[in-house]
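Q: what sequence does this backbone want?
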């Protein structure tokens, strides 16, 4: 039986209000092979548009 290699993936997000230290925290573990970012552009754009409309 062949041993499968493990790929260690960390996930960071770019949603409005998320911690800005997430990448730093993930990198500090030293145990990741890949970091994946998920930017919720549609939600962010609507929140930013609403915030700008209040100004």
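A:
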């Amino acid at each position: 039986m062949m041993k499968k290699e493990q790929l260690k993936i960390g996930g960071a997000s770019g949603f409005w209000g998320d911690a800005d230290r997430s990448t730093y925290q993930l990198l500090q573990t030293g145990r990741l092979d890949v970091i994946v970012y998920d930017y919720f552009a549609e939600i962010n754009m609507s929140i930013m548009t609403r915030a700008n409309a209040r100004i």
